[in-house]
């Protein structure tokens, strides 16, 4: 992947196509992507409500990160394996994880991965930040030993990149040329020195580990970045740019409200700063889709 | 005449035989490949089994421990080496947060067949960070098995058994016994993980220990025998699972128990053994359980090491007091 510092865009904020937008997807795939994103947002809002009602324990919302998760997970093949942190419910849905089993975790029924991580190829939920990155790299090392044409994809947040585990795991991936995609979602809520106050952003830092990198924006570039990484079987550090509208955890009501006005809607679904509109549609993506040859007329 | 093995040779043979027996087994860590390990335990394995299966890693203990989890999910078994006890701590987060919990967190679905070998304990006049007794950290973490061999033949057996185990095993190698020798055949037959062994019979008291202290306890038992005191010597081998029946039987049969270990006294295995004896055999006790241990201080410099480690005389004296109580 080419050296990039600016986000890789296929879609401008007003919905206009940018450059060559043909990423090799059928109309059916594009509709599936949009469906997953809308479904994920609706479920996320439901989970926030369930947490407020006391039906779920701490629930980490992901509003604003749907595209990063759906696009990247959609790009994976059936033999690929996902190592999530604790905020990847949208990716889990795409991978076929049963939402109810997944939410047993947040309901306090069981720790870790109540779903079957082997059957779903979606690892247990991982709370100690950055520790899952080495798991993803180890899995990719195993794939390489088997000569398997697959990869691992590990999600982590921008804050995780401050942990030593990130650097150790990224270096390990480089040393063993493992087919591991390290997928950083910078949702703007890193604990606790924010992006820009620390060393280089992740896409720059991964150079230290001699990894390929990309900085996609919105779902289709996530998909393009993901498939590109897979097809070329390169080690790839990816940083997604979506901002989390809901904040770090469910107890930060003030942050939730305060953040609503500056949401960067990766999904292209602009939510009013007032009451959330569940399952909202429209926006830049739909406008773009309606202009494209993929959208049914 | 039977063949004689050092503990290093026995461990090397256990790895070699396991690698031969199971082509999904990997051995990796710092300097374990080309160099053959600081203590030569992995000597020649890379030549025999190739760089794919026996390989060097960056000096990154957390990544080594974490990668073993991903490898397990990909169907590989791992024996990872921490170069020294004092350098195993960067991996603790992976071991405590993931290794120990993985089976439960996956509702029993996922095996983690991983062994962490750690050259451990003092007695070699090492530098600081090279003589630690980390067993309590692991013993206190539910979900791990913790074993400590004391002799070459048992080291072979325990390592083979640990590698065959579907759950993570912390394998603490008493580095001061690496060059000790034992005659006999290398075999996995014999006591399993979770079973202690009685190395000497005696009715007057029981001395319970493990690792490098076994040799000193046997020497103390010889001293005591010359004085007319017959001590049973129990080598725990397995700290988790702990052989409650062997500890209970030793207490019931003798009524007097001494526990010996290198680690500091506070919350060491001695505390657990003493409490277990209370629970299993309180009515049989003729004397308080005695503990002979390292002191509650950081592991000392080489010149003071002999004052720190339980000596044959300290062990014998504790047994005398217990028998005379």
Provide a compact summary of the structure.
Chain A is an alpha/beta fold and 297 residues long. Chain A is built from eleven helices and five strands; from the N terminus they run ααβααααβαβαβαβαα.
Question: How does this model look, in words?
Answer:
The complex is a heterodimer of chains A (297) and B (325). By secondary structure, chain A is α/β, with parallel strands linked by helices. Chain A contains eleven helices and five strands; from the N terminus they run ααβααααβαβαβαβαα. Chain A has one domain: 3-Layer(aba) Sandwich (Rossmann fold). The two termini of chain A are 35 Å apart. Mean pLDDT of chain A is 76; it is low at 231-236, 249-282 and 292-297. In chain B, helix 10 (269-281) links the parallel strand 13 (257-264) and strand 14. In chain B, strands 3-2-4-5-7-6-12 form a seven-stranded mixed β-sheet, sandwiched between helices. Chain B folds into two domains: 4-183, Thiamin diphosphate (ThDP)-binding fold, Pyr/PP domains (Rossmann fold, 3-Layer(aba) Sandwich); 197-324, Rossmann fold. Chain B is 36% helix and 20% strand. Chain B has twelve helices and 14 strands. The termini of chain B are far apart. Chain B has helices spanning 7-21, 45-49, 61-73, 92-99, 102-105, 135-139, 152-164, 213-226, 244-254, 269-281, 305-308, 312-324, and strands at residues 4-6, 25-29, 54-56, 77-81, 114-120, 145-147, 169-174, 181-183, 197-200, 205-209, 231-235, 238-240, 257-264, 290-294. With 325 residues, chain B is of the alpha/beta class.
Low-confidence stretches of chain A: 231-236, 249-282, 292-297
Q: What best-fitting shape of chain B do the alpha-carbon axes yield? A: globular
Q: N- to C-terminal separation of chain A?
A: 35 Å
Beta-strand content bin of chain A: 5-15%
Which strand order spans the largest sheet of chain B, edge to edge or round the barrel?
3-2-4-5-7-6-12
Strands of chain A, count? 5
How many domain units of chain B?
A: 2
């Amino acid at each position: 992947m080419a050296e990039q510092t600016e986000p890789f865009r296929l879609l401008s904020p007003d919905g206009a196509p940018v450059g060559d937008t043909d990423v090799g997807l059928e109309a059916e795939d594009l509709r599936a992507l949009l469906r997953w994103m809308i479904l994920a947002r609706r479920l996320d809002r439901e989970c926030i409500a369930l947490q407020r009602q006391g039906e779920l324990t701490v629930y980490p919302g992901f509003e604003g990160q749907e595209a990063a998760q759906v696009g990247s997970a959609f790009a994976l093949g059936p033999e690929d394996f996902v190592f999530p942190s604790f905020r990847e419910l949208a990716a889990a849905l795409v991978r076929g994880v049963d939402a109810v089993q997944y939410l047993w975790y947040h309901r306090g029924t069981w720790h870790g991965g109540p779903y079957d991580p082997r059957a779903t190829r979606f690892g247990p939920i991982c709370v100690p930040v950055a520790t899952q990155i080495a798991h993803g790299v180890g899995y990719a090392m195993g794939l390489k030993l088997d000569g398997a044409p697959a990869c691992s994809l590990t999600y982590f947040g921008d804050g995780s990149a401050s942990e030593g585990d990130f650097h150790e795991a990224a270096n390990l991936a480089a040393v063993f040329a493992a087919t591991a995609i390290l997928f950083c979602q910078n949702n703007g809520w890193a604990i606790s020195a924010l992006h820009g106050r620390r060393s280089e952003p992740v896409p720059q830092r991964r150079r230290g580990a001699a990894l390929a990198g990309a900085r996609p924006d919105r779902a289709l570039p996530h998909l393009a970045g993901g498939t590109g990484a897979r097809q070329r079987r390169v080690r790839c550090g990816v940083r997604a740019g979506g901002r989390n509208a809901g904040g770090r955890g469910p107890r930060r009501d003030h942050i939730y409200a305060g953040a609503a006005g500056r949401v960067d809607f990766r999904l292209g679904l602009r939510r009013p700063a007032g009451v959330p509109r569940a399952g909202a549609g429209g926006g830049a993506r739909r406008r773009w889709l309606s202009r494209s040859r993929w959208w049914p007329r | 005449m039977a063949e004689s093995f050092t503990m290093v040779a026995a461990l090397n043979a256990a790895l070699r035989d396991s690698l031969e027996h199971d082509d999904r087994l990997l051995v990796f860590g710092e300097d374990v490949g080309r160099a053959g390990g600081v203590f030569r335990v992995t000597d020649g394995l890379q030549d025999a089994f190739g760089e794919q299966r026996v390989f060097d890693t960056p000096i990154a203990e957390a990544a080594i421990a974490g990668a073993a989890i991903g490898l397990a999910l990909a169907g590989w078994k791992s024996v990872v080496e921490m170069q020294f006890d004092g350098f195993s701590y960067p991996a603790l987060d992976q071991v405590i947060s993931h290794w120990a919990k993985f089976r439960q967190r996956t509702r029993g679905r996922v095996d983690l067949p991983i062994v962490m070998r750690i050259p451990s304990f003092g007695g070699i006049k090492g530098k600081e960070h090279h003589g630690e007794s980390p067993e309590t950290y692991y013993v206190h973490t539910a979900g791990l098995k913790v074993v400590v061999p004391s002799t070459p033949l048992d080291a072979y057996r325990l390592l083979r058994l640990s590698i065959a185990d579907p759950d993570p095993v912390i394998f603490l190698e008493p580095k001061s016994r690496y060059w000790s020798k034992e005659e006999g055949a290398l075999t996995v037959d014999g006591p399993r993980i979770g079973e202690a062994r009685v190395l000497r019979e005696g009715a007057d008291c029981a001395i319970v220990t493990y690792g490098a202290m076994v040799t000193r306890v046997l020497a103390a038992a010889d001293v005591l025998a010359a004085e007319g005191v017959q001590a049973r010597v129990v080598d725990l081998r397995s700290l988790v699972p702990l052989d409650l029946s062997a500890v209970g039987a030793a207490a019931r049969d003798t009524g007097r128990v001494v526990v010996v270990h290198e680690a500091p006294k506070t919350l060491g295995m001695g505390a657990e053994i003493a409490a277990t004896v209370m629970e299993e055999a309180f009515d049989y006790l003729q004397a308080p359980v005695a503990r002979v241990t390292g002191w509650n201080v950081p592991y000392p410099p080489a010149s003071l090491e002999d004052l720190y480690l339980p000596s044959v005389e300290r062990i014998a004296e504790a047994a005398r007091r217990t028998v005379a109580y």
